[in-house]
Amino acid sequence: MDISTIKNQFPLLLQNPNLIYLDNAATTHKPQNVLSAMDQYYKVHNANVGRGNHDLVKLSTQDYENARTKVAQYLHAFNSDEIIFTQGTTDSLNKISQMLVDRINPDDIIAISISDHHSNFLPWQQITKNKDASLVTIGVTSNFELDLDTFFAKHPMEKVKVAAIPAISNVIGKVNHIQQIIERIKKENPDTLVIVDAAQAIGHEYLNVKRIDCDALAFSAHKMYGPQGIGVLYVKHELLATLSPVVLGGGMVESVTIDNYKPTTIPQRFEAGTPNVAGTVGLQTAIEFMQSIGIAEIKKHEQELVKYLVEKLQATITSGLHIYTDTNKLQNQSGIISFSIDGIDSIDIANFLNDDGICVRSGEQCAYPLHEQVIKTSTVRISFAIYNTKEEIDQMIESLSKAIKMLK
Fold first, then answer.
1. Is 130 helix (H, G, I), strand (E, B) or coil?
2. Catalytic residues, which ones?
3. Which of 184, 236, 356, 406 lies at a CB distance of 3.0 to 4.6 Å from 399, suitable for a disulfide?
4. Nearest-CA neighbor of 394 among 302, 291, 309?
5. How confident is the model over 174-202, as pLDDT tens digits?
6. What pTM value is reported for the model?
7. d(CA 344, CA 408)
8. Is 3.40.640.10 the CATH number for 34-290?
9. Which has the closest alpha carbon to 392: 20, 10, 28, 6?
């Protein structure tokens, strides 16, 4: 791959040639074809989906449903009716948790991971509070892998109604073997519903929901070179058919009376209000952008960067460095590395790097329980995308070395 040619497809990076952007787990930049596709939609097809019979409505609806079909194909869903468009991963996880709330009884267990992002933590926490159920965390081993052995030993699986787990932690960056994890959970209790937070995996890993056999899966477009404000909630059709919508309004009804309403067909009944059609067009184009490069190639490039970064960190920082993953198994690492340095606040490091035009994440990274109970300090996170290079790592290491000298 010619990374410079790929990088030149991103207008923000072209306009800021000295910028080193290493915060891709928060959001990725957008290639020109994504921006152009969204702009073209508003210029040519702009109309409200499914509301009227004029030609612009038909064209806009076709754009919207084409995007749904593309997402279904990308995830290898059984059909496009299993795809619900949302505002993003947070919205998706809140919606699926509310759809399932009536299934949770007192004394039931909802299992989440200690390494979860708050978006896959707080919705389930709130439900267990309201339903007098138990929220239980799956811990991590010394190698930062999900500690299922301890979880199964401590908790009766017949009580676990929902297990909501991340495909990749936004802090640790280790790739969880979702298929094997789900197989093990279902073996212990076939009725446990498994929800996958795929926000950090969608732009870097090959996801096949048939093979994974999850009950639901959530992700955002903006972490895979697409626009912000659009996301996806995949739900197995047989489960979706038993669920009721939690947001009501225009577009999700077939008829309304003074006393009641009749919902329209799946999945539209779960998409009340005016949809973000331009966002879905951008999402479809982002998928096509990634496919033009190849998910395997993207992953290979990012893993090379991760290996190079870890080697550079270990060679440069000879004492007080803590890298929060198993550095001996980087073949199972996504493009995320979080670290801390004894005696230096992570926010101070990030501010120093920012002064040199280097963007990284610092703090608790929307994962307070993980930082408080496992890591015990705030961290600096570096996260890669297809447009990052080893030369950028070299410049970051040079800036980090200066920061350590000044801050220690």
1. helix
2. 366
3. 356
4. 309
5. 999 999 999 999 999 999 999 999 999 99
6. 0.96
7. 6
8. yes
9. 20
